[in-house]
Amino acid sequence: MKIDMHCHVKEGSLDSKVSVEEYIMLLKAKGFQGMVITDHNTYKGYRYWKNHIKGKRHTDFVVLKGIEYDTRDAGHILVIMPEGVKMRLLELRGMRVSVLIDFVHRNGGVLGPAHPCGEKYLSFANTKRYRRSPELMKRFDFVESFNCCESEESNENAMKLAQKYGKVRVGGSDAHKPDCVGRAYTILPEPVTCETELISMIHKKTAFETGGNHYNKTTKEKMGKVKLILTYSFWFYNKGGELLRRHGRNAKMEQENPIDPIDPIELYYIGKQG
C-alpha cells in the first residue's frame, strides 16, 4: 500500500494551497492508495475530510488522522493517535518533547521527528534538546527518513539516524503546493484501513519502504541564504504561540494528562537503558 505520511491541506494549514479533494485526486493519479493528514497543531483538515467527503467520495482511498506538533524544545514531531482518541492538548502547541512523548504513548499513539536533520529549531537533531539528550531518540517510534522538501544531505542524515536507533522509517512529501504532492512515499507491506492498524505495524517495527524525488522549488530554496529569515520567523511564531496558549494548555494538561506518582513508560525506558 503506497501512502504519503506527511500532508498539509488548506482546510487545516494556512500556508497550504492544496485542498483535501485536490490532494486525494493528485495522489490517486500517481498510484497512491492513502495519506495521513498532518497539519500543524490542528485536526481541522482531517475534520473537513470526515464531515464533508468521507463515505461520499473517494471510498477507494484511505485518509488517516495525524498531526505535526510544534514542540517547545525539539522542533516538529509527527503524531498518529488511534481512531476515536480525541485530545485537545495536541492542538495546543508548545509542550516539551518529553511531555509529548509520555502523553502520546499513554494514550496509545506513536510519534517521530519530522525532517529530523533539517532546519535549526524546526528539526529535532538540530535543537539544543537533542544535543543535550540524544538518548531521547530511543523513545520515538519512527523517523521521517525521506522528506521531498529537504536536501539530499538532510535525508541521508535522517536515514542514518533511523538506522542508528533501529527506528521504523517513514516518508512524506510535506507538500503545501500541488506540484509537490506525491513526490515522497511510504510503502506498507499490507493495506491499512485505520490509524490503529498503522500504529500496530509501527509497534511491531514493520519495515516500510520509503523514497521519492526531491522538490527544488521550496520557499527555502528560492530564498537562498535569506532563508534564515524564514527559520527565525518560524521560531518566533512558535514561541509566541506557545506563550499565548500556555494557560489553555496547562488547563488541558491537568484534565487530559495528569501526572502519575510513577510513570510506567518512564520505568520501561529506564529499564531498557539499564
UniProtKB/TrEMBL annotation:
SUPFAM superfamilies in the cross-refs: PHP domain-like
CDD domains noted in UniProt: PHP_HisPPase
Record-annotated Polymerase/histidinol phosphatase N-terminal domain positions: 3-73
Pfam families listed in its UniProt record: PHP, PHP_C
Entry GO MF terms: 5'-3' DNA exonuclease activity; 5'-3' RNA exonuclease activity
Protein name: PHP domain-containing protein
